Inverse folding.
């Protein structure tokens, strides 16, 4: 088993309110307090130099589509995990919209088995809220919990029936599972493919109004209060959603929200050449929405950063804008984009808070044994160079897919080494 010393880095461990210079010691895949705790007569002690670098708890991305089972031409659990490692992530939470959908214990068992044999990072499955993610009948939430899902969500879809959603939240509370929700009112959104506004009108594309998200965020606030259980709103894109969540959290409602990289890195202006790599759900929004989301990150209203990594094959995206599937790959660009934008460019949060939003916050939300450098914790560690300048090259991605609008972007900040259970699974 592994033994290593990571030397002379800046150790940022928000769970232990730690930010200082020092060494981190690893023995048998676990963090130990000092060199004398390394008892490893059989193998060499690996020395890793972290001078000038940040030693962070392994980063967690709670919103990832791994596409297996069912769509292994887009991504597999193995390739998605390699992309995660290359992005600095030691734990990823995968969404249930696979084929078959992850709405039953057998599919969850399959995903966990596959991850155990093929994934180089920790893969934690979510289960569906409704059977076949159709929003009509509840999935067996209790058995999903026993099968080991970390949360329930119908991501990609949204339960429209508020009474059904209420029962889902009540069951989830009973079995102690967090609820995540993709917020989209189908009647308001209709066949919308881009933000409803100037660009949708100019380009003649069907609009997806911000109110289509805000209506469901509001519904979730009401249900979180009614059921006294936490609801986490996925990929928040609209200024109105930020305001609703901010007000509700002030009143003590158990509600939270997350931000995906593309919703602050781009606006709906990016769709003007009909690039299908700028088609996401929810869509890219206006400048004022982006400003509101950055403000929401800065005042703590939005507490988690993630990618909504959504790989699609080239032939699927190379069609007319209306016909193309939603989503972009994100695992290998998100850390660089967020450090670049939030820490260097806008200076809205510091690197400590950014790491907290990728470690302590998601671990707390999903009750994960992860996201800390505490003695005795699994040695899941990300080494970050916050000042490293690099250029995004999609042809170098570990992901099987290439659907990213960020090819050629020059960024500052990235992970340089990813360690899972004491073992280096990726390094620059
Ligand atoms: Zn979604």
């Amino acid at each position: 088993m592994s033994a290593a010393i990571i030397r002379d880095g800046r150790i940022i461990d928000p769970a232990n309110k730690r930010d200082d210079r020092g060494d981190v010691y690893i023995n048998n895949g676990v963090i130990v307090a000092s060199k004398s705790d390394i008892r490893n007569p059989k193998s060499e002690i690996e020395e890793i130099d972290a001078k000038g670098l940040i030693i962070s708890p392994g980063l967690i991305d709670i919103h990832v589509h791994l596409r297996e089972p069912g769509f292994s031409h887009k991504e597999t659990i193995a390739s998605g995990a390699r992309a995660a490692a290359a992005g600095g992530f030691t734990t990823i939470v995968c969404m249930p919209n696979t084929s078959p959908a992850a709405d039953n214990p057998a599919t969850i068992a399959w995903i966990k088995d596959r991850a155990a044999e093929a994934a180089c990072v920790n893969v934690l499955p979510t289960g569906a809220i409704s059977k076949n993610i159709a929003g009509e009948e509840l999935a067996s939430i209790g058995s999903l919990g026993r099968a080991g899902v970390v949360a329930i969500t119908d991501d990609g879809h949204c339960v429209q029936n508020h009474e059904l959603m209420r029962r889902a939240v009540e069951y989830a509370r009973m079995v102690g599972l967090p609820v995540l929700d993709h917020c989209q009112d189908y009647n308001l959104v209709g066949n919308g493919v881009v933000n409803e506004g100037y660009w949708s009108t100019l380009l003649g594309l069907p609009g997806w109004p911000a109110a289509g998200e805000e209506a469901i965020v509001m519904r979730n606030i009401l249900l979180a209060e009614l059921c006294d259980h936490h609801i986490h709103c996925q990929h928040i894109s609209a200024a109105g959603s930020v305001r609703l969540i901010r007000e509700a959290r002030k009143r003590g409602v158990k509600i939270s929200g997350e931000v995906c990289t593309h919703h602050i890195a781009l606006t709906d202006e990016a769709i003007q050449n009909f690039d299908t790599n700028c088609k996401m759900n929810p869509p890219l929004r206006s400048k004022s929405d982006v400003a509101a989301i950055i403000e929401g990150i800065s005042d703590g209203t939005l507490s988690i950063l993630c990618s909504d990594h959504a790989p699609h094959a080239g032939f699927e995206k190379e069609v007319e804008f209306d016909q193309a599937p939603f989503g972009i790959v994100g695992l290998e660009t998100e850390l660089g984009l967020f450090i670049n934008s939030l820490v260097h460019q806008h200076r809205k949060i510091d690197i400590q808070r950014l790491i907290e939003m990728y470690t302590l916050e998601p671990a707390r939300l999903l009750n994960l044994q992860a996201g800390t450098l505490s003695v005795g914790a699994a040695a899941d560690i990300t080494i970050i160079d916050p000042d490293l300048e690099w250029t995004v090259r999609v042809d170098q991605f570990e992901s099987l897919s290439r659907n990213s609008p960020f090819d050629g972007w020059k960024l500052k900040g990235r992970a340089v080494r990813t360690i899972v259970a004491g073992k280096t699974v990726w390094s620059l």
Summary: The chain has a mean pLDDT of 96.
